[in-house]
Design goal:
mainly alpha, 11 helices
Length: 339
């Protein structure tokens, strides 16, 4: 998700196109791009409001990378200089020493295309951005960072299932993850209707699949579930109203609502979600489609904690592994952001 006030005022006034990640270097076990996996060397910059960044938050928690990859959380409200660290003392990230994420981008390259987006991984010694490739970051956390995974970490991208996972993720990305944005930022009726129809057609196709199995692929949580979850958890609070994806609410789809609650209540998922950040970002930053900046009071998030009964379908959330431990105190979501 890109920062910048001018760009956000333009949403809903020009055809929406998802910018491709410009910085696609990878952090790998062999360091082939010049960035070897190394505990403590890199810092993950996220906004808890952003679904793309939320993927990295969930993956990092499930894999137990908190002590190897430090975390910077940006203010959900940007100004025209990009994501800012105004949640930290003196408005500076305490590790990188910068006020705006754009400073790390500028240290890597000037006049870069695509804006300043999260998630981003920054090299701490140099202060330079390494990557903002939101599609690849979590796959590399699951595969290239294995030497630093916690004991009992799940295999989020099992080799034997990768073809199926990739196929599911491609459909979910096109129609659901990105589809809600194409609907929300549409500039005419035809554009909106096509995008909105695509969102619900894909959700309708996923419903029978998830009625018969607990997770999207196989019997354990995979990267595919993480990517669908980060859209579903925002659906009723944001996409139903703000983005006009309102054929039905998530809570009105018995299967998907239970599936989403199952994941939310799984350690590593719901404990990374901040509904306050999510709502304030979308409603206050997207002034092109919500010029008043008014943030709605609802919906009531307490339903996320109600029984889901998905365990009756079987499945092993962490495979042969174990749940992650408690959230680190300094990374806990504030009470106003939780159900």
């Amino acid at each position: 998700m890109s920062g910048g006030d001018v760009g956000n005022r333009g949403y809903g006034r020009k055809t929406f196109t998802r910018s491709k990640s410009h910085f696609t270097d990878r952090i790998t076990a062999d360091g082939r791009d010049g960035w070897p996996v190394e505990a403590g060397r890199y810092r993950l910059v996220v906004s808890r409001a952003c679904p793309w960044a939320s993927r990295a938050l969930v993956s990092r928690r499930l894999l137990g990378l908190e002590y190897a990859l430090s975390l910077a959380v940006a203010d959900p409200i940007q100004d025209d200089r990009s994501w800012r660290f105004t949640l930290d003392p003196d408005g500076r990230d305490p590790v990188l020493g910068i006020r705006f994420l754009s400073e790390a981008y500028d240290r890597r390259e000037t006049d870069y295309p695509g804006g300043v987006s999260v998630p981003a991984i920054v090299d701490v010694p140099s202060g330079k951005l390494v990557t903002n490739d939101f599609q690849q970051i979590t796959l590399d956390l699951a595969t290239e960072w294995k030497a630093l995974h916690r004991q009992g970490a799940p295999d989020l991208y099992p080799r034997a299932l990768r073809d199926e996972i990739d196929e599911v993720m491609e459909d979910v990305y096109e129609d659901v993850n990105n589809g809600v944005y194409r609907a929300g930022f549409a500039t005419d009726q035809e554009e909106y209707e096509a995008a909105c129809a695509g969102v619900f057609q894909r959700l309708d196709l996923l419903t029978p699949r998830l009625a018969r199995q607990r997770y999207l692929v196989g019997d354990t949580i995979t990267e595919a579930d993480i990517r669908l979850f980060t859209t579903l958890v925002r659906f009723d609070a944001i996409y139903h109203g703000h983005f006009k994806c309102n054929r039905w609410k998530l809570t009105e789809n018995e299967v998907l609502w239970a599936y989403a609650r199952d994941l939310f209540q799984t350690p590593g998922f719901g404990d990374t979600v901040d509904f306050d950040h999510i709502k304030r970002h979308y409603y206050q930053v997207h002034t092109g489609i919500n010029p008043t900046g008014i943030v709605p009071l609802g919906p009531d998030p307490s339903g996320w904690l109600t029984p889901h009964h998905r365990q009756l379908l079987g499945g092993r959330p962490f495979g042969d592994g174990t749940p992650p431990g408690p959230v680190r105190a300094e990374e806990e979501v504030r009470p106003q952001g939780r159900p």
